[in-house]
Amino acid sequence: MPQAGSTPASTPTHCPYCALQCAMSVSPGPAAGGPAGGSPDRGAGVEPRQFPTNGGALCRKGWSSAQLLGAADRIVEPLLRGPDGVLRPAAWDEVLDLVAAKVRALRTAHGADAVAVFGAGGLTNEKAYQLGKFARLALGTRLIDYNGRFCMSSAAAAGNRSFGLDRGLPFPLTDLGGAGAILLLGSNVAETMPPFVRHLQGARDAGGLIVVDPRRSATARLSEDGAGLHLQPTPGTDLPLLLGLAHVVLAEGLADEDYLARRTVGRDAVARSVAPWWPERVQATTGVPAALLRTAARRLAETARAARAGGAPVYVLTGRGVEQHVNGTDTTTAAINLALLLGLPGTRAGGFGTLTGQGNGQGGREHGQKSDQLPGYRKITDPAHRAHVAAAWGVDESLIPGPGVPATELLHSLGLPGGPRMLFVHGSNVAVSAPDAGRVIEGLRRLDFLVVADFFLSETAAEADVVLPVLQWAEEEGTMTNLEGRILRRRRAVTPPPGARSELWIMAELARRLDAPGRFPTDAREVFEELREASRGGLADYSGIDYAALDAGEAVYWPCPADASPAAGTDEHVAVDSPTLHGTPRLFLDGFAHPDGKARMVAVRFGAAAEQLNLPGTLTLLTGRLLEHYQSGAQTRRVPELNAAQPELRAELHPATALAHGIADGDLVLLSNGRGRVVARAALDAGMRTDCVFLPFHFAGDASANLLTSSATDPVSSMPGFKNASVSLSPLPVGALPDAGPRSAAEAAARPLVEAAR
Ligand SMILES: Nc1nc2c(c(=O)[nH]1)N[C@H]1C(S)=C(S)[C@@H](COP(=O)(O)OP(=O)(O)OC[C@H]3O[C@@H](n4cnc5c(=O)[nH]c(N)nc54)[C@H](O)[C@@H]3O)O[C@H]1N2
Ligand SMILES: Nc1nc2c(c(=O)[nH]1)N[C@H]1C(S)=C(S)[C@@H](COP(=O)(O)OP(=O)(O)OC[C@H]3O[C@@H](n4cnc5c(=O)[nH]c(N)nc54)[C@H](O)[C@@H]3O)O[C@H]1N2
Ligand code: SF4
Ligand SMILES: [Mo]
């Protein structure tokens, strides 16, 4: 239970939102611009802090983040759905007793897998770790997965396959600043991590920023100063584009053959696989002119050659635009292959990285909330890994269930025969953010019992039988692992509302009621101490890290083994910003994490899935993000200034596409396919391709882009193809409004367009 204690005037911590984890100081007090009706004693002030990643800057979301601490519609008491279907406040003991009784009853009647858990990459390391243990030991279920499956899974799978290890950036972010060239594929950092843009400046100044995006995004526009390039392929064709870049590098003798021979295996198979992708064929498939492709390949290769001689380094970076496809793992692999051909990963001449998204998207994928995983990035199917974790948990290994199923499969099996009948959701708004969300909402409604831990009545919480009010970022202690694999302290800066509880406390209370084996401490530091042991010797080894070290310097990159000897495949296990700290800021300098120390070059082939080939008359739906909103929008739609800046769903369309469909700027349009219908306001933008429409996924109800996305997934990573659905576009026909009435006040509030049009 949270203790009301004294809070210092200003506490150093980090932003609640994305993986850049900008440093800030939080002081209790009324939040500037706080929401009307908010609790005046629950606000806080935010000031940016100097830190290498954000350089003292914050984006609008960071600046306004504290406003939600005292939001008027924050949930501050447990809510229980009554027989009349209405959610009403209830006492903690009453709801926890009920939840535990439901678990027991369903387990007895249907087996332990009748209960499932859905976690998140926004949870602290401690909560993510504890949630994985809670599922396996307290619930006894194998069914746990999390929203990182929608986020980092393709990049993680590719990194593990090629390098033997997945750390989003295997080098400090500040290394990018001196780059001579950066190939940035499917990432719109100018909106998704604005303070990151400073790290692109070196490449921009050198004319070496090359952005690949079917949209002329804010980031693509950054490449237009100087001699930078914007490649604007047909969506879903990054794989052939990358095969084409590799083709040019090899055909023109620009590969670093010495590096390939020393540090990789599989070069010849990759060379054979890219041979058929000559630039003119790539042009026919991707729409990117052959000459532009050659220019890009030569610029990267020439800069890489200079880098090997001590010049400015070269980086290849990916974002969700290339990863969230049914071939996302292979596309990311093709990007890694290109970086390997240029001789970059594990050298001072540059590298490959992926830009992790959620606040703890990196740590969230290391500590065991993934269906096939145990802490320390261990495998749940490996007997030695299971034995190690069982010992750290103090339980018999046989008590740890086997692997579960990935997120999309889990969410689409809810309430179906053989599927889970009860679900716990911690930190995700799946009713808005999951693919084919209409089907997910049906599944949530089929469940016998839904428990959602949140601080707002998100669209998912609005479906719950029990809502458990939890702490917000500035009210809790813990650690986050940022996009560089650097472990940071999240600190309690303000006192939480009396009715809210920490998730560690909730798990401990339920574990006790369920007579769970293992330990469930409520103090984050105590959980971290156990996490250290559980991770010891694993790929993501945190055993050498403790809160005291973090509090002293905030510069520990994993792996950080307790004995301070280098982890396998890494050589730079050194003190970084502080002489007392250990860590591995740069991975792979001595070798990759495969047993032979060599990177795998995996030959990948382009085979477009049916959905990716547009039917005549349809457009490709691109989905993504706006600066002002975060993810499902559950938080940022509640911040007045952010919501005022982006109040409604806008569909970005090329003027020619709009004209062909009889649509003018500002018109309401209907986007539809076999899965659903969405209403949006047309926003004409000549930077779009004529065969695409772009929708952000931040809005709910009939403005939810995920009513249209497909649940088809990548066979390796189980990543859904969020970035590539086929849709029909029309002006909103009179009488064509979706007729289902709003289910909740939250949903109604999220349907301004439909309501306005009625
Ligand atoms: N403002 C804001 N910032 C955020 C978030 C947020 O919700 N809002 N979320 C955070 C999280 S969890 C994540 S994962 C990151 C995501 O960060 P990004 O990866 O930068 O975000 P997206 O907007 O999803 O996608 C990036 C770009 O991919 C492009 N794209 C779409 N399809 C394709 C394609 O087929 N090929 C290529 N090359 N590009 C394509 C889109 O046009 C878009 O500009 O952002 C983090 N930061
Ligand atoms: N079409 C489309 N869909 C996408 C994507 C896309 O690009 N296109 N991107 C995907 C990606 S990359 C991601 S990461 C997902 C993200 O989508 P979601 O998983 O839905 O993420 P959020 O909207 O951040 O939801 C977080 C919820 O948890 C609450 N919350 C925040 N912190 C905590 C906490 O510490 N504990 C608890 N219990 N609750 C908390 C918030 O109030 C909010 O309701 O969306 C995916 N969906
Ligand atoms: S860029 Fe990300 S971490 Fe930084 S202030 Fe914005 S949302 Fe927060
Ligand atoms: Mo994400």
TrEMBL record:
Residues 738-758 have a biased composition (Low complexity). CDD domains: MopB_CT_Fdh-Nap-like. The keyword Metal-binding applies. Pfam families: Molybdop_Fe4S4, Molybdopterin, Molydop_binding. Residues 30-51, 736-758 are annotated as: Disordered. Transmembrane segments: none annotated. The keyword Lipid biosynthesis does not apply. InterPro entries: Asp_de-COase-like_dom_sf (IPR009010), MoPterin_dinucl-bd_dom (IPR006657), Mopterin_OxRdtase (IPR006656), Mopterin_OxRdtase_4Fe-4S_dom (IPR006963), Prok_molybdopt-oxidoreductase (IPR050123). This is Molybdopterin oxidoreductase family protein. The lineage of its organism: Bacteria, Bacillati, Actinomycetota, Actinomycetes, Micrococcales.
